[in-house]
Each structure stands twice: as C-alpha cells, then as structure tokens.
Amino acid sequence: MKKTIGITTTVPIEVLIAAGYTPVDLNNIFVSSPRRQRFLEVAERDGFPQNCCAWIKGIYGVCREHGIPQVLGVTTGDCSNTLMLMEVLRLRGVEAIPFAYPPEPKTTDMERALSDLASRLGTTVAAAEEVRRELQECRRLAHVMDESTWRHHRVSGGENHRWLVSTSDFNGDPSAYRQDMAPLLEEVEKREPYPEDTIPLGYIGVPPIYAQELYPYLEGLGARVVYNEVQRQFAMPYPGANLAEQYTNYTYPYSVFYRLQEITAEVERRRLQGIIHYVQAFCHRGIADIIMRHDLHVPILTLEGNHDFLLTHHVRTRLEAFVDMLRRQGRSSGVDGGRGKRSTKVA
Fold first, then answer.
1. Which residue in 28, 175, 183, 294 is deepest, having the highest Cβ count within 10 Å?
2. Does the residue 224 lie in any domain?
3. Is residue 324 part of a domain?
4. Mean pLDDT throughout 160-170?
C-alpha cells in the first residue's frame, strides 16, 4: 500500500513514486479547499505570526488538519520560510525530509541530489527513471494543452493554470490525470477560438492565491493569460535525456536570470502584449520584480496577494486599468487585436 507524502513545491516526484509514496502537493490542497481559511486559522492558533506568508501557514494547516505523516520540504531553491516550517512540523510529530536543489543548474550536482534523495527514501535513481518514462505521456498531454492555449486559442487561462499546476503531483494519481486530459483535448479541438482582439497576457511568478477569480475576470475584460510561467515549468517543458537533466532544466529553483531567459523567449513566441507579475506578501521573491521590470521590455502589472482568496476591488480596478492601457496602446501602434506585434514600452 502506498504511503502519502506531502510536498511543499515541485520536487522530483519520480523518486517519491519509485519509493512507494503518493506525493501530494500541499499547496494545491490548501488553495482549492473550501476550508482554506480554516487552515490559516489553525496555523495562527499554533503561533504562526500574521505577517507570515499565507502559503506557509496554509501548508501547515493542511498537515495538521489532514494528519499528513511525512513532508518533503525544499530547503534550497524555493521558500526560505520552509526551513522553519519543517522545524515546527517536526515539533508536531511530522517526519520532515529535506531536499535541496543545487545552487546552480549543473547536471552533475543534480545527479548527486537525486541519488541522496533516493537513498534516503530507500529506492534508486534507476527505479525513478522508470517512473519518469511512465509519466512522459502525462507531461506530453499537458504541453499539448498549453500549446492549444496560445497557438490555437481554444483553452482558457484558468484551464491552462489548473492543468499545469496539477503536474506538481498529478493530483496524486497520474493515471487519472492522463485519462481526464485525453477527452478534454478532444473537446478542445471542437471549440471556437477566442476572438481575434483578445489581448494575450503572460503570468509570471508563483501561482496566485486568488486563481479561481483572476483568470475568468481577465477574460471578462477581453484579455487572456496564454502563458503561465511557473505552472508551465511544473510540467517540465525541457525533459532532457534523464531525470538529472530534467530537473536541471527546471528554471524555478535557480537564479531569476535563468527564468528571464525562458520568459523572454515566450514573450516573443506567444506575442504577449503585457505581463502580470504576481508576488506573495512577505516573500523574498517579490524583490525579483526589480529585475523583471529592468529586463522585460513589455508592460508589467505587479500584483501582491496575501490571504485574500477573492479579488479585491482595488485589484479589479488595477486589472481593468492595465487591460485598458494595453488596448489603447495596441490601437495607437496599429496592432491587429491581440495577436500582432507586441509593444516594447514598460508600464
């Protein structure tokens, strides 16, 4: 019988599955649950401060409420707060297992990290490679869906987000993920494309805490997210020849400049007219906005979220103003709707 292990972000789940575990992304449980506010309350009741990231508190609350026995936490390459989260989880009787991405994306360093993790969990990298091959079809289908989002304009930004973000753990059941994705793609082929004048947007940064409202609200304004940066990375768009290469090519754990190379290429390829950069309150990654604005020559709207699971009036107003600005900018430069040449002006 497989054992459940919680994960705090995308990790080499192939190793976990090879070791007989069912990986469960605690973030996805937290943000999709109707009891998400309860998870925050549990964390604050146990002493987490109000000015601590809502994702960290949510993960803790999920572990406590669901009785998660083991958690694999990323100690390098994700969130600095995870280190202390793991200490508190140990205090509560949870086995907190560390995993560190190498400081630089080097295949040899990743090979050692994977070997150490496999040894810790009682399996081998060779067994994990077998799992990798089994998951390839799931990842391929995710990329077909992503391509249909921006190339064929038949998938909504919200659908793109949900299916890509789920590749962190394949909802705990890769077979079910694959079986559910196949008929969706068949149905997508029959859809009418979005209107030509829909403004194509990119979304960069960690997945939003108010994802359920953000994407449909943008589409109601005549814009659509056709590029979800980190969610797409979860699906491993550059799998390489083996696990070490796959997780070396995964940009999120490394320097922001590796992410920028990928983002810049997708801005051009998908002809994005604007970018929404989401930052989580009290998160060190928010400082990366300085670099994003310096290096990305496309209008950027930076949004900060905390524990507000619904779009506030303030955020709605900013989104409306941003989309309106892009629309006026496109008209003044002669862009043909949302699929023409992008502007290079930074907002």
1. 28
2. no
3. no
4. 97
